[in-house]
Structure formats: C-alpha cells, structure tokens
C-alpha cells in the first residue's frame, strides 16, 4: 500500500459525511464509505485492491476500533435502562425465535445452508445506530427505555453468537476462543474499576492532561489490541475482542477526553478506511451471475423488520419495533468474517449488506414517524 492509495482511500471516504450531511435523512456515515469502496474496488474501477496485506491489516485495526466503539454505546450503566431489562429481554428472545424460523426458511429457499447465520442477522440490532437516532429525534419515555434495553441485549447476544454459527465445523474452537476473550474482558473490567475507584486513573489523567502525554488513549489502544491479539491467537474474530473491550470500558465509564480522542482516531482515519476496504471487497458483479441473491438480501432485510415489528403483540409501537430492526455491526462482521474464512457463496456477502441497508432505511423512516407522533413538551 502506498501513500497515494492511502490518500485515495481517505478522500473517497468523504462520501460518507457528504451523504449524511442532511441529518433528517438519518443516513449513517458508513453507507457513503461503503459505496465509495464499491465504486473504486472489485465492483467498479478496480483501483483499490483488498488483497494488499498492509491495507488489510489497517482495515482489521479499523474493524477492532469500530466494534470497540459499538461496545461503548451499549448503555450498561444506565439505571433507567436496567429497570426495563425484563421487557426488553422478553422481546429480544421472541424476536430471536421468529428470526430462527425466518433464517432457516430463507436458507432453505436459496440453498445456502446458512440458516443459523441468517437467524443471527435477522435477530440482531445495532445500539450504535439506534441510540443516536433516538437522541437526534428527542424520543423519550418508558417505551424508549424498553427499546434501548432490547437493542442492547440483542446487539450483545448477536455479536457473541455470530462467530459460533458462521463456521459450524469450527464452533468448538470458536467457543473456547470466545471464552478466552470474554475472560480477558472481565479481568480488564475489574482492573479498570480498581483504577477508577482508587483514584489512580484520575491522577494519571491530570498529569497526562498537563504534560500532553495522551496516556489514557495510549493505554486504551494497548489494551484493545492486547485483547485483539488474544482473539487472533485463539482463532476468534477481532470483532468479539473489540466489542468485549468496549463493554468493559462502558461498564466502568469511559472518560470524556478518551472518548473524544478515540472518536477522532476511529472516525477520522481507521473507521472510514475499514468501510472503504469492505466496500472494495464486495463484488456486486456477482449479482449478475446469481440475481436471485438480490431477493435474498431483500428477504433478510424485510424479515428483520417483520420479526421486530411483530413485537406489537407485546405492546411495542410498530415504529419502535422497526427502529429496533436497524442493523449494521453484525452484518458487517458476518461479511468480514465470512469473507476471510471463505464460507460465503458468491454474492452472499453483498446480499447481507443489502439486507442491512433495507433495515437502516426502514428504521430512519420509522424514527421520523415516531418523532412526529410523540407528544410535544
């Protein structure tokens, strides 16, 4: 990878902010970055080559940070959300049951044999997508707390389950690796909590801020990549490492200064690089060979929306159910892991991303409707 290629990647990644410029549309930044990658990668001009080891390694770093940030978005410390866990858990479980039926049905109709993967995709939610939408629309009240609890649980469960189902033949080793990563994250949580309660973290913060050491950022990245190393050595995706580290940090409370620093390095550099790489990796030309997989993508997206809006039977407004269906982290992880393991059929990765885009479009529309229907203060 050369500096000219790196400059091109970051330049075309600006398509993300451009497409997201109008806040009312609720278009995630990553959509533009993915489309830029598609245009300059295997589908389009073929300028970006994802087989480049340096490009791939930087993309893996971005993937780890993207999942870390997703983990920090899970509201594990919010007492109001915890009070709504029972209802949220019930809805998440019922969505999972519907998703299992729909996932295996789609796998049978299209002959892919990936019913378990589709079930996880359909059942998943995205706290990193849903929570900012909720904040931007000013939604509040008990139904919103229940929605947040449901999304947090579904997001966490899906990310843990995905590595175990995407390659069934290797599920035993993946389970052991996942346990190793989880144990590392638990140890990290207790270490961080001790540093916070003892005041050591605060004293280090004061020195770092005064002397411009950026100690907290350095330590955060070192810890993240240490757990990522545990994941790679135990043959588990760095997706789980990033998310588990984010959950550990969220459980203690992420300092605002570190959050801003990580936001800068993630959203300003490694995240757009990862999503441009992912878009370049996707080959939409494969749809020409297997056009039926377009229907698979639409089916995955619509099945996810249907599974979530069916929670209307438990009293959840339809608009909130559609918002809970918004997904991005799990489909991205499925595509990334599935591509690396070579377990996906031609065009299947693109179908998964198409399904995710369907849920995002529906969720954005549903959020706007919910905001209009909400009582004015």
UniProtKB/TrEMBL annotation:
Describe its membrane topology.
Multi-pass membrane protein
Q: Which InterPro entries match?
A: Cation/H_exchanger_TM, Na+/solute_symporter_sf
What is the name of the protein in this document? Cation:proton antiporter
| Species name | Nocardia albiluteola
Transmembrane helix as a keyword of this entry, yes or no, is yes
Task: Give the transmembrane region(s).
Answer: 55-76, 88-110, 116-135, 172-192, 262-280, 292-311, 349-371
Under the heading Gene3D superfamilies, the entry gives: 1.20.1530.20
Location in or out of the cell: Membrane
Annotated ranges, domain Cation/H+ exchanger transmembrane: 23-373
Tell me the protein family, please: Belongs to the monovalent cation:proton antiporter 2 (CPA2) transporter (TC 2.A.37) family.
Query: Pfam families from the xrefs?
Result: Na_H_Exchanger
Keyword list, A-Z = Antiport, Ion transport, Membrane, Transmembrane, Transmembrane helix, Transport
Q: What is its main location?
A: membrane
């Amino acid at each position: 990878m050369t500096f000219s290629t790196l400059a091109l990647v970051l330049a075309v990644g600006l398509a993300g902010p451009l497409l997201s410029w109008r806040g009312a549309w609720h278009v995630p930044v990553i959509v533009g970055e993915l489309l830029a990658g598609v245009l300059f990668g295997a589908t389009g001009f073929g300028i970006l080559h994802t087989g480049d080891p340096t490009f791939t390694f930087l993309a893996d770093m971005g993937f780890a940070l993207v999942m870390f940030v997703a983990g920090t978005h899970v509201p594990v410390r919010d007492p109001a959300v915890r009070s709504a866990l029972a209802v949220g858990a019930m809805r998440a479980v019922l969505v999972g049951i519907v998703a299992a039926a729909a996932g295996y049905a789609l796998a049978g109709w299209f002959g892919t044999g990936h019913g378990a993967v589709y079930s996880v995709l359909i059942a998943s939610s995205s706290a990193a997508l849903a929570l900012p939408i909720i904040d931007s629309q000013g939604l509040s009240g008990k139904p919103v707390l229940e929605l947040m609890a449901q999304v947090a649980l579904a997001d966490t469960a899906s990310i843990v389950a995905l590595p175990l189902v995407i390659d069934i033949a290797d599920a035993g080793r993946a389970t052991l690796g996942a346990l190793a990563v989880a144990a590392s994250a638990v140890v990290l949580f207790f270490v961080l909590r001790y540093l916070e309660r003892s005041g050591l973290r605060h004293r280090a913060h004061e020195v770092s801020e005064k002397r411009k050491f950026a100690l907290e950022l350095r330590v955060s990245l070192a810890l993240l990549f240490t757990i990522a190393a545990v994941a790679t050595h135990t043959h588990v995706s760095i997706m789980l490492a990033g998310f588990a580290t984010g959950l550990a940090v969220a459980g203690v409370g992420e300092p605002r200064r570190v959050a801003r620093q990580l936001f800068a390095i993630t959203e300003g550099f490694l995240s757009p690089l990862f999503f441009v790489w992912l878009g370049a990796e996707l080959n939409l030309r494969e749809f020409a060979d297997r056009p039926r997989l377009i229907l698979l993508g639409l089916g995955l997206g619509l099945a996810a929306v249907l599974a979530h809006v069916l929670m209307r039977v438990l009293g959840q407004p339809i608009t909130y159910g559609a918002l809970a269906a918004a997904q991005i982290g799990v489909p991205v992880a499925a595509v990334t892991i599935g591509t690396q393991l070579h377990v996906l059929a031609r065009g299947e990765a693109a179908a998964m991303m198409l399904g995710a885009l369907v849920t995002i479009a529906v969720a954005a529309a549903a959020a706007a409707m919910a905001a209009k229907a909400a009582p004015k203060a």
